[in-house]
Amino acid sequence: MSELGVWLAQQCQEDRDLLLKYQPKRFAKRGKVDRYCAWLTDFGFIEMKLDFWGVQALIDDYDLARVSDVLLSEGQTETLGLIQAAIRKSAHVLERDKTQLAGHLLGRLLDFEIPEIRFMLEQTKQSKEGLWFRPLKANLERGNEGALRTLAGHTRNVTRVAIAPDGKTAISASDDSTLKIWDTETGRELKTLTGNNSSVTAVAIAPDGKTAISASGDKTLKIWDTETGRNLKTLTGNNSSVTAVAIAPDGKTAISASGDKTLKIWDTETGRELKTLTAHTKSVTAVAIAPDGKTAISASADKTLKIWDTETGRELKTLTGHNHWVTAVAIAPDGKTAISASADKTLKIWDTETGRELKTLTGQNDWVTAVAIAPDGKTAISASRDNTLKIWDTETGRELKTLTGHNSWVTAVAIAPDGKTAISASGDKTLKIWDTETGPKLKTFTDLMSMVTAVAIAPDGKTAISASDDLTLKIWDTETGRELKTLTDLMSTDVMSMVTAVAIAPDGKTAISASGDKTLKIWDTETGRELKTFTAHTRDVTRVAIAPDGKTAISASGDKTLKIWDTETGRELKTLTGHNHWVTAVAIAPDGKTAISASEDKTLKIWDTETGRELKTLTGHNDLVTAVTIAPDGKTAISASGDKTLKIWDTETGWELKTLTAHNHRVTAVAIAPDGKTAISASRDNTLKVWDLFSGEEVCTFSGEHGFNCCAISPDGVSVVAVDTSGRVHFLRLEGVSGGR
Description:
Blueprint: H1 3-10, H2 13-29, H3 33-40, H4 43-53, H5 55-61, H6 64-67, H7 74-89, H8 91-94, H9 101-109, H10 115-127, E1 132-135, E2 149-152, E3 158-163, E4 169-174, E5 179-183, E6 189-193, E7 200-205, E8 211-216, E9 221-225, E10 231-235, E11 242-247, E12 253-258, E13 262-267, E14 273-278, E15 284-289, E16 295-300, E17 304-309, E18 315-320, E19 326-331, E20 337-342, E21 346-351, E22 357-362, E23 368-373, E24 379-384, E25 388-393, E26 399-404, E27 410-415, E28 421-426, E29 430-435, E30 452-457, E31 463-468, E32 473-477, E33 483-487, E34 499-504, E35 510-515, E36 519-524, E37 530-535, E38 541-546, E39 552-557, E40 561-566, E41 572-577, E42 583-588, E43 594-599, E44 604-608, E45 614-618, E46 625-630, E47 636-641, E48 645-650, E49 656-661, E50 667-672, E51 678-683, E52 687-692, E53 697-703, E54 708-713, E55 719-724, E56 729-735
Antiparallel strand pairs: 1-56, 2-29, 3-4, 4-5, 5-6, 7-8, 8-9, 9-10, 11-12, 12-13, 13-14, 15-16, 16-17, 17-18, 19-20, 20-21, 21-22, 23-24, 24-25, 25-26, 27-28, 28-29, 30-31, 31-32, 32-33, 34-35, 35-36, 36-37, 38-39, 39-40, 40-41, 42-43, 43-44, 44-45, 46-47, 47-48, 48-49, 50-51, 51-52, 52-53, ...
């Protein structure tokens, strides 16, 4: 612990609480800049403040100088700003698990050479006790990259978001059948609104901010008191899911859109249905009301938009041009133009008076799901199923920025009334708050270019090889995280085929890659030269394992088989059949006499590698088995599954010994430490976990920003390499391991 941390720990609890709560404020008010900065760059203080007063109180301390008009130097401003940004970006994780502080500060700040930050990170490394994952290189978004903050709390896709007129709160809708009200400044969840019997598909907030209206897959709309969270009214009348809702500028009426091809105008005071608008031939997906309240524009799966007279309910114009579903529409503040989004991957700007198409905006790589126009009308933000948002110049149609950070499709976006921030919603169950003025700085990680599908560590632990869907293998220095070599001769006749797996021979001199093009390739790891290609599988090759003597290898495939190969000649020796679905993984026992396979048929099978005979079938998982590894003594094996669990098996009897539960999403990989006492699992719940195999208890966790695809542990049991779904390769060190320091 730092000297300041030790001193604080020595104070009586009452004094310590007061010092943690008020001392930074006292320094700021009295103009003691150096003392203020010293406390806020000290890990001991940061950790203790978080533990005693919570993450938001800690974040607020970094604003005290500005609030107190204290003049900081440019360097001090930058240093405190980066630390604050790092903590704020990790707030949703730290609120759940404060032990992630050290890993997240290192993961976000390691790249910065600022002396105060370097000193704080050194304190971080020295202060942490027990077993923990220490990042060896920056492996999370830096404080000055990406979104300002992530809001987590929903348990399923977040479908829509609306920001209150004062900008202080936002309301999100979700497939988990709830709405949540958030404090946009602190990111704190204020209320959860329950009452719907199906997905909540949309939400709109009244101009006075006092009420909100939600739409649902249960065919109803609900009016809510935003102060109390009480459901005031339920509006019924639709014959299908209600897909969208907009409230008129005077707050007196609202318009809903539905899968029953209609729009309905409602009296928000009485809840009475005033009119039904019919003309679309397919589901109506979105609706926006003009600033003067006199017209509205609807979007539909029939590929059109329609402009309506809200007083008479008469259709005024039909706008055509999109060649797929129109998913969203927004009207500019002056009412003269509107922007539509479509499943055809484009946005279109329209003249609302004439109905003429003015511009088509292209750049998204998948459905455009939502669009919002800034209060000044000069920019717009689109959301897409390609996991990104884009900021556009509405005058020129030029793309200004791309915002990345979500790890699933972006479903909605709303811009704050001051135009300075925006909030996005996503299928990854989160919302993110963005600075629309500065935007995120571009990422510089070279390992973010593609999906990395597998990783293996060399027998000496000094290098690792990753496999990727860009048809390459990369060799890395595990100590520094530096890329040493790229093997690029993997191009097949099927350019869409990814490299799915990689294994390194016991002597470290060769590696074998598996591919979706149905082949395996042997590589010289020193020169990067391709030595041989194995062909025989009829579907994707999903995994490969090399025998302890290096003379044979076993591949697993989507063709439901495993194949044993002679690594010297490339000859197929045996085909193992028995699974009735894709074989997803394979591991070979330390003595080379048996192998265990995993499959999407929810089973594992133990095989005699000499005869190719199936010895046992292990059952117990209730979803696909994604990975398997065998302990160094060969007596036990661990499997990972889509059912969110790992299972420990007795390889002699086939009995299930333990089930490990703690992950809340698919477990994608597992690796056992060389001493056989611990294992590391990777999961799509954004975590890596270390397990005590004797007790079956979770020992420590590293929380990332994306789901993890794979992980590997070095022969020394200390270095860990893991890969997440963004393509980032994480180089971590397990601190607290006996003999690991």
